[in-house]
Amino acid sequence: MSRTVQWLKTSRGSGVILILLLLALWQFSALYVMDTPTWPPVTRIFQAWVSDLLDGTLINNLVATFWRQMLGYWLAVVLGIGVGLAMGYFRVAYNLMEPLIEVFRPIPGPAYLPVLVLFVGIGDEMKVVLILVASLFPILLNTYSGVRAIDPVQFDTARTLGLTTLQTLREIVLPAALPQILTGMRISLAISLILAILSEMIVSNDGLGYFTLLAERTFKVPDMYAGIFTLAMFGYALNRLFLFGEARLIRWHQESSGRR
Amino acid sequence: MFRTLALLCTLSMALLAPWATSPAVAQNKPAPATVRVVTLPITNFTPLLVARDKGYFAAENLTVTWTNVAQGAVAIEAVFGGSAEVGGSAIYETMVARGNGLDLMFLAAGVHIHDTPPDNSALLVRTDGSVGSAADLIGRKISVGLINSVNYVHMVEWLEKRGIDPKRVDFLEIPFPQMADALFQKRVDAVWAVEPFLTFMTQSGKAKVLAYPYIDNIPGMDISNYFAKESWIKAHPDVAARFKRATDRATDDLAKMPKAERDDWVAKYTGMKLDVVKNVTLPVFDTQYNVPSLKANLDLAVKYKMTNKPFDVGIMIFKP
């Protein structure tokens, strides 16, 4: 096997090089091909990004987005896991909740916005509720699926050993369903960021979504792209952090399934 | 006992004296009130910043805060839902909302368009294109922003007045910041651009003005204002009057101040660079409603079925 192929298989550097090549193509096209102020060179975007970073604008707006996203997301995690566990373990809970969930699940998050503005308002509460609602279903459904996929023998074993319901949920159900739960959480992490940005674009005085839209509206195009770039970096960092945590939590599962 | 009583009376008089001797001072300052405003972050609502920074709100003992929204419809929802007392939006949308059953009133006037060109919005076509008149738009693609918005209704009216069936023109929804690219890349044949994009596009040399539809339809028409729920105004007429007084002072200031100073305020409120603001055409700040234009716009809303039935637009205007 050639050294290049070996390197491509083992190193993440190829992905970085691809990104750099695309940026170089962007720079070239902005300088020599496209004649429009809405496609600035990468260097000008980078200058705007550094300037916005140093004067605190990007940091302040990023912090505003971050805490809204995290609050909505973690509320969705608690609610989603709770309801998902209940539905997966108790037939009564499933029969009660399933029709309601199937009605609301297909509704895209942004569709709730007008209703939330009317009933919850235009402040941070509205944004957090929107993030919660949109992030809830992947976590809930994956939790439910994870519980239903548990080998019934494990439940028989729990009964044989005389475990209470709470002990069964804690010692058997939750660990066994955790890989699926984390899958749902990872999907919802991206959704929560999208909805945080969207809600800030519709009604807000701060946040990355507000900053990016304001830059677009006031024709500060390099700043607009700087906002988009910050968003991309932030999303990437969140995802890497999540994967790091997931690897620690379900190392046993990744090793047994050959992912490690 | 008598001496104790005399002492108590003296003490009471001493404690009550400040209120007894200066009733005028006590009555001058109105009760403090908070007014939450939800509005679009556009030039039209610059008076809010002027009123705050020049102390006009403080003089009325009002604490006024504002939140930005992307669309006027969201402002109407927010006011109607109770998360803000006052909204800033297009006159047309507020009237349509009223016509469809929402109890909204015009609280204070804002801006109107110009009577004669140039205006702060215009229908643009490519300089090197083949569209040179209204008739050339037949079979073409144009974008005026949102369908069923005030721009859309006025564009349809503008076409009909020139004998063109609007159904023969293909309307596309494109956000204002993206109109330049859409026009120059020939994805559309005409766009109704607003400032600052209007100036950028014409200064590039690639776009020219075909028409000013607002001026052609209703010159000098009111375009945006501050509104509130009628029930809130009736419950808080004093606060409403104070808010109107403060914003009217600010609007009047903006109308009369030198261009350089006005540009500076607009730049601060909107976040636009001052160099950009200097070159754009701003709307006209005015504290008085152009009532015939309100009626004309309501007639258009009824004609194009945006609202069910006509009503006396005068009932919407708050008179303290």
3D architecture notes:
The complex is a heterodimer of chains A (260) and B (320). With 260 residues, chain A is mainly alpha-helical. The two termini of chain A are 23 Å apart. In chain A, 82% of the residues lie in helices and 0% in strands. In chain A, helix 3 (42-54) packs across helix 11 and helix 9 runs parallel beside helix 10 (208-217). Chain B has 2 domains: 32-113 and 220-316, D-Maltodextrin-Binding Protein, domain 2 (3-Layer(aba) Sandwich), CATH 3.40.190; 121-217, Periplasmic binding protein-like II (D-Maltodextrin-Binding Protein, domain 2, 3-Layer(aba) Sandwich). Helix content of chain B is 45%, strand content 19%. In chain B, the strands form 2 sheets. In chain B, strands 2-1-3-10-4-11 form a 6-stranded mixed sheet, with helices on both faces. In chain B, strands 7-6-8-5-9 form a 5-stranded mixed sheet. In chain B, strand 6 (141-143), helix 7 and strand 7 (170-172) form a beta-alpha-beta unit. In chain B, helix 3 crosses helix 12 and helix 6 (91-99) packs across helix 15. The termini of chain B are far apart.
Number of helices of chain A: 12
- Please mark out the parts of chain B with pLDDT under 50 across 5 or more consecutive residues, or reply none: 16-26
Low-confidence spans of chain A: pLDDT under 50, at least 5 residues? Answer: none
The biggest beta sheet of chain A is recorded as: none
Structural class of chain A comes to: mainly alpha
Largest interface: A-B, 24 and 29 residues
Overall tally of structural domains of chain A: 2
Classify the secondary structure makeup of chain B into a structural class. Answer: alpha/beta
Oligomer: heterodimer
Dominant shape of chain A: globular
Number of strands of chain B: 11
What distance lies between the first and last C-alpha atoms of chain A, to the nearest angstrom?
Answer: 23 Å
Strand order of the largest sheet of chain B: 2-1-3-10-4-11
Mean pLDDT of chain A: 91
Largest sheet of chain B: 6 strands, mixed
